[in-house]
Amino acid sequence: MTTSIASPGDAFSGAGPRHRRTPAAPRPVPRWWRDATAGAGWAVLLAVVALWVAGGGLQAMSTLAGALTSTGRLTGLLASALLLVQVTLMARVPWLEQAWGQDELARVHRLVGLTSFTLLLTHIVLVTAGYAASGPLGLWGTTWDLAVSYPGMLLAWAGTAALVMVVLTSLRAARRRLRYESWHLVHLYGYLGAGLVLPHQLWTGADFVDGPVATAFWWGLWALAALAVLLFRLGLPLWRSLRGPVRVLEVRPEGPGATTVTVGGAGVGYLPVRAGQFLQWRFLDGPGWSRAHPYSVSAAPDGRTLRLTAARVGDGTARLAGLRPGTRVLLEGPYGRMHAGVRTRRKVLLMGSGIGIAPMRALLEELPQEPGDVTVVHRVRSREEAVLADELRSLAATRGARYVQVEGRRVAGRESWLPTQAAHLSDVQALRELVPDVAEHDVYVCGSDGWMHAVRTAALDAGVPAPAIHLERFTY
């Protein structure tokens, strides 16, 4: 491991203190927001069960056919409610974003989605079996009769097929084989699936139309989910983009395999971006512009420009190098909780691996700090691949921070954040060697999933409380 501390004379273009706005004093994100939104989700499910009971769900279970059909109704209702919760979670509602963070929302979204999908399949099986048990057509005859004779059922089957496709392509094994662009396009079929299922529920679902309370509840739930998507996924980003155009100002290579893009324009001032956060970026440079890509800002926002630095790892990131000044940019966000507002302590440790150092560099520039408060650990395979290293050294010197490069290939044979030459140390020992009082720090982490998991585990074992560890995952 090598330690690099910049000298006061180091300088580089754009790395030192820029003429930028002074960020507002960091405001802690209220922790009760998270509890309140989780409670609202559980309240929705309790309301669904209560309406099922009030609609005679328990009384209908006196016979085998009735028990199958009634239980099938309940699983279908819960599946519908969870599907709407799932859609709302990823509607990029600012209050949910600030309470949970985009990566945590994505993980809850995936769990809720798999649960909803399982309940949906159970609903289909139980309702079909219940109808078959009470009629003369048998299982396959009943299946056919339900599909062709009941209003909206063919649409519901098409919606179910779309949801099956989304779920299958969301499994980790499938995700590894798909490009991000392909996966994102397929994932949009989830909205189609939800939309196709709706007519069946409203036309044939007794629980949706049996009483004014049930009708108001279900229509209100659907309307709330649709409004969240239209307002925050479409309306707000479109309004900001039209109100103030943003264009590419500069594109430059950033070491081997990385690109830095600076954008500016009136629209930047309408985005309340904090260092450490990310946005969804769309560059209107040709085919494929409609697919957004998440990039963290790599410099503290100044109210006039935003900057990203990304490694070339796929089609979207490879296109960055070919952007031309003047290209129009559409931005959504900001997203993520990895900013100064979640800070709990005076001392801060910023740890970035590879291109994960980009948000750390922005945080180093923006975090309120006294000399000695902040330590930056930059994990790289080699000095030649240390993206933004010169800027980090200069900023560290200017701000009185300590900058450390940890070089070399990862330790083989164990899950570790360390290089091979430090294999004789445990992850916790190495962390304490670099930062002896690490237990008194907030720890911000960004890098690959495995590396971040190893850092988080080491930080916890070193005595850092879980609420003081902040990280953002981009692989959902």
From TrEMBL:
The keyword Zinc does not apply. Residues 1-28 are annotated as: Disordered. It comes from the Bacteria. Residues 241-341 form the FAD-binding FR-type domain. GO terms for molecular function: 2 iron, 2 sulfur cluster binding; flavin adenine dinucleotide binding; metal ion binding; oxidoreductase activity. The chain crosses the membrane at residues 36-54, 74-91, 111-134, 154-174, 186-204, 216-236. Its cofactor is FAD. It is found in: Membrane. Pfam families: Ferric_reduct (PF01794), NAD_binding_1 (PF00175). The keyword Mitochondrion does not apply. Coiled coil: none annotated. Keywords: 2Fe-2S, FAD, Flavoprotein, Iron, Iron-sulfur, Membrane, Metal-binding, Oxidoreductase, Transmembrane, Transmembrane helix. One of its GO terms (cellular component) is membrane. It is a multi-pass membrane protein. PANTHER family: 1,2-PHENYLACETYL-COA EPOXIDASE, SUBUNIT E, NADH OXIDOREDUCTASE HCR. This is Ferredoxin reductase family protein. It comes from Phycicoccus endophyticus. The lineage of its organism: Bacteria, Bacillati, Actinomycetota, Actinomycetes, Micrococcales.
